[in-house]
Write a structure and sequence with these properties.
Layout (H helix, E strand, L loop, with lengths): L13 E4 L5 E8 L6 H6 L11 E6 L5 E5 L3 E3 L11 H4 E5 L2 E5 L4
Antiparallel strand pairs: 1-2, 1-5, 2-3, 3-4, 6-7
Amino acid sequence: MSIQQESQFFIGQIIKHNLLHYRGVIIDVDFQFLGTAHWYRKISLDRPDKKQPWYHILVDNASHQAYAPENQLEACTVREPINHPLIELYFLQFDNGIYEHRRNKN
């Protein structure tokens, strides 16, 4: 039986990537790396630990998503909304720096 690790960040929270310097909003969390081995080998950064939470992120002022490990993220102090074309697919409301009322994907 494996122990599920708690995540530091939550869905709807705005974060900043420490190495790539982008802002984004968390849309999902994996409690360990669930990407492909091919993708992991292509990472040009520091080959982060797979056994930590990894976050799916809508990147601000972009149209792509990112997948990043917890140790490369920090809570963002900028309380402005994220500009991303898919934001409305995941959230209904932005209040006090946090996206709320996550929509069902069904």
